[in-house]
Amino acid sequence: MPTANSFTTVSMQPPTVLVSLKRGRTWQAVSETRRYAVNVLAADDVAIGRHFAGTPLAQGTPALDEHDGFLLLPQAIAQFGCAVVNAVEIADHTLFIGEVRWCRHQDGLPLAFYASRFRKGVGAEISPSDALAYPAEGWTI
Questions:
Q1: Which side of the chain, N or C, has fewer Cβ within a 10 Å radius?
Q2: What predicted TM-score, i.e. pTM, was given to this entire model?
Q3: Distance of alpha carbon 122 from alpha carbon 110, whole angstroms
Q4: What is the CA radius of gyration of the chain?
Q5: What are phi and psi of 9, to 5 degrees?
Q6: What is the widest separation between alpha-carbon atoms in the chain?
Q7: DSSP letter for each residue of 46-106
Q8: 49/58 Cα distance (integer angstroms)
Q9: In this model, does residue 37 exceed pLDDT 50?
Q10: Are 7 and 19 in contact (CB under 8 A)?
């Protein structure tokens, strides 16, 4: 479960997001299964972010949970399970566009990565009271 180069919303109806992945093991797995999960880490989870970006934790691999076949980090403040509906090759990356099949979120400030480093608490705080404008059937909110 490495770090994606990019993750962004594409559409609210139907709920659709994309991840940008370079060819490798995760790219291969997403290409074959046509599914992926996104785990948004909390601002304090820099060490876990570094672990999945290639710098292993000293105390071993973070624990993972499974929900509906998606691998999830239990401490993530937001999680999305997606089914690939399109894939677009751009240079050395593929944009995997996925329709959200499952999601969950909890209070917390997100961890972000830009300008070649992790940034704590960038953006708005995620809150369970945040209403989604167009929730799809089957979402857990």
A1: C
A2: 0.79
A3: 6
A4: 15
A5: -75, 140
A6: 42
A7: HHHHHHHHT---TT-PPP-EEETTEEE-TT-SEEEEEEEEEEEEETTEEEEEEEEEEEEE-
A8: 13
A9: yes
A10: yes
